[in-house]
Amino acid sequence: MDMFDNKETTGLENLGEFGLIGHLTKNIKLKHPGSLKGVGDDAAVLDFAGKKVLLSTDMLLEGIHFDLSYTPLKHLGYKAIQVNLSDICAMNGTPTQVTVSIGVSSKFPLEAIEELYDGIYIACEKYNVDLVGGDTTSSRQGLVISVSVLGYADEQDIAYRNTAQEGDLLCVSGDLGGAYVGLQLLEREKMIYLENPKIQPDLEGKDYIIERQLKPESRKDIVELLRAIGVKPTSMIDVSDGLASEILHICNQSNKGCNLYEEKIPIDPMTYDTAREFNLDPTICALSGGEDYELLFTVKQSDYDKLKNQPDISIIGHITEASAGRNLVSRTGNVHELKAQGWNAFKGE
Ligand code: ADP
Ligand code: MG
Asked: Which Pfam families match (predicted)?
């Protein structure tokens, strides 16, 4: 690990598996009364007091899901937790516990794993979840992180993908495409660096989209907002693979069609301008970019008044009968079939 080359480091072989687990988990203080037993036995013991239990898992592999040449380990730990919390939010639930499993190769000193866990604990603290277990193994090659998350919801609050109804409004939180454009920026600076290590990365003024890529936030706040204003989504999914793909999941599973209006898709000005610099269509970045971790959901038309003035929620279309198709209505009024790869897959037209 280059970033630790100039520091005193501790080889993992000095601790052994149990030493490492003990070291990484020694400061855990469980926050939830439902976390009866956390790290330290053969299984965690949890109490959900009559609620429905939500469970989801995501695995991140070095070289596939992250590139350590521009991803600080602390951000990576933070992101590994967020992408999991996002799945519980997407069910309209409250995340409460996580387990974290890691496969680590000997190229990582203890200090690197500590950085990773710093990010993990910061995310757990901020989103009020307990780390209650995991697994630790060695890996021949890259770093592997697998997180499982548990949460709860009342049965009537759970929002599935397959329950959108004709006439429902299609809504999305935050803005889209930023994480993808941020990734393009990081990849470009990496190429420049590899060609000439003397050139410093030029990420000036691009903080927002870099953060969207490296340090995403799950939208627990949106779940809480919807509850507070008395809106139960008729269906919901989180935006991990791009808006188009997620809308198609809802339409396919609900057996419905949709009209999505290009002009309504929320795109931050920095995302827009940087996409243009890269000769990319900002709309396609939003439709097919992915990793935004916003919430896409449908609501009854009668909820329109409760949502129309929410700054963090955009109404981007509506649900139709299946036979009407899945349509993207462009700014000029042309109708395209909505495809998961965008209508001109990143060619910049
Ligand atoms: P077992 O042999 O039963 O799999 P382990 O020795 O792997 O048990 O784990 C001991 C305890 O430490 C368990 O409670 C487990 O959940 C926890 N644990 C192991 N690895 C991690 C990790 N990377 N992060 C958090 N907890 C962990
Ligand atoms: Mg184990």
From this structure: AIRS
Q: Is 342 left (phi over 0), alpha (psi -120 to 50) or beta?
A: left
For residue 41, which atom of ligand 1 is closest to its CA? Answer: 14
Residues 10 and 120 in one domain: yes
pLDDT, tens digit, 9 for 90 and up, residues 171-191: 999 999 999 999 999 999 999
Q: Are residues 40 and 115 in the same domain?
A: yes
Q: Is the pTM of this model over 0.85?
A: yes
21 lines ligand 1 (CB under 6 A): yes
**16: domain range?**
2-157
| 53: β partners | 152
Q: Say whether both 126 and 207 belong to one domain.
A: no
Residues 183 and 322 in one domain: yes
Spatial neighbors of 297 by CB under 8 A, at least 6 apart, are 159, 171, 172, 226, 233, 234, 235, 236, 237
Ligand 2 center–CA 134 separation, angstroms: 7
Ligand nearest to the CA of 134: 1
Same domain, 134 and 182: no
162 lies in some domain: no
At 89-147, the pLDDT tens digits run 999 999 999 999 999 998 899 999 999 999 999 999 999 999 999 999 999 989 999 99
* Nearest atom within ligand 1 for CA of residue 102: 23
